[in-house]
Amino acid sequence: MITAPSITLKGRTAVLATMHGKEQVISPVLAAALGVQTQVPPGFDSDRYGTFTRDIPRAGSQRDAARQKALAAMELTGCDLGLASEGAFGPDPAIPWVACNRELVLLLDRQSGLELVGEVVSTATNYGQTRVTNLREALQFAASAQFPDHALVAMPTSNPATAAEIYKGITEEAQLQTIVTELLGRHGSLWLETDMRAHLNPSRMVVIEQATHNLVKKFHQTCPQCGWPGFDVVRRLPGLPCADCGLPTALTHQWIYRCAQCHYERQVLYPEGIKVADPGHCGLCNP
C-alpha cells in the first residue's frame, strides 16, 4: 500500500484571491470545518482573469482561472495555502431553457502539492439578459432579475468589444432609470443583463458557500489506499438494466472513484440505490 504524506490544514492561514467579498461565505465554512483562517490580499485585481461582462475574456477553463488567481495571490503574499473561486453561467445541461450557475472553489497547498476543488451546479440563479427599447421593458426585466437586491449591467450593445460604455453595479431604481433613458436617447435600444459579481449577487453567494461545503466534503473523502484527500467520482457509466427485459439502458449503472495521488480506482455499483431502470428508459421496451 502506498501511503501519502499527512496533510494538515488546521491552524494554517490561506490567502483568498478575491475582490468581490467572497470571504463572507468562504471563510466561516473553512474556519469551522477545517480550522483554516483566511486573509484577502489588499488591492488584488481578480478582474484581470476575466469578467462576466466579457470586456476581459477568461483565458482557459473555469478551473484554470481559479488556479491562476490562487497562485497570483500566493505569490503576492508569500502564503503557501491559496484559495480562489470561479463561477460560470449558462443553460442547464439537462434542461436547456433553464439557467444554471456552476461554482468552483479551489484550494492549493504548496506544502503537500494538493489541489482540491469543490463544485456545485445550481439552477437557483437570476442569470439573464435582454435587449430593451423602452423604460417599461427595462423595469420589467429588472423585476424578473430580483433588482435591486441583485445588481444590473447596462450597455448599448450585447458585444462589449463594440460598446463604448458599460454601466456595472446598478443597484438603485433612479440610477437605472437615468442610465436607461440616456442610452435609449443615444442609441434607441440597449442591452441589460444581470451583474454576476459575487458581492452584488446574493443568489450566487449562496452557491459559492455550497461549493465551499463541497470542498470540505472532498477533503474528508480520502483514498482508501493512500489516504490522499479528494477521492471522488471521475466517471459515471451507463448500463442500468431494464426492469422488464434486462437490457442495458442509458441510466447510470456504476460510478468510478479515482485517487489523484496514487491513481487507485474503485467501482461502485448502483450508486443511487436503484438496481433496475424503468422500462420507459429502455430502447427496446419503449422505442
Overview of the molecule:
Helix content is 25%, strand content 26%. It is of the alpha+beta class. The protein has three domains: 13-125 and 199-220, Maf protein (Alpha-Beta Complex); 129-195, Dna Ligase, domain 1; 233-281, no CATH class. The chain has a five-stranded mixed β-sheet. A four-stranded antiparallel β-sheet has the order 6-9-7-8, with helices on one face. The chain has a three-stranded antiparallel β-sheet with strand order 10-11-12, with no helix packed on it. The longest helix is centred in the last third of the chain and has 19 residues, at 202-220. The relative contact order is 0.13.
Keywords:
alpha+beta; about 25% helix; Maf protein; about 290 residues
Could you provide a short overview of the structure?
The protein is α+β, with helices and mostly antiparallel strands.
Indicate the topology.
Blueprint: E1 13-16, H1 23-34, E2 37-39, H2 62-77, E3 81-91, E4 99-109, E5 114-122, E6 129-132, H3 135-144, E7 152-155, E8 167-170, H4 173-187, E9 190-194, H5 202-220, E10 232-238, E11 252-258, E12 265-269
Parallel strand pairs: 1-2, 1-3
Antiparallel strand pairs: 3-4, 4-5, 6-9, 7-8, 7-9, 10-11, 11-12
Helix pairs in contact: 1-5
| Sequence stretches where pLDDT stays below 50 over 5 or more residues | none
Question: Mind telling me the C-alpha Rg?
Answer: 23 Å
**Strand arrangement in the largest pleated sheet:** 2-1-3-4-5
Number of domains: 3
Q: What is the rounded distance between the termini? A: 48 Å
Structural class: alpha+beta
Largest sheet: 5 strands, mixed
Based on the structure given, which CATH architecture of the largest domain is correct?
A: Alpha-Beta Complex
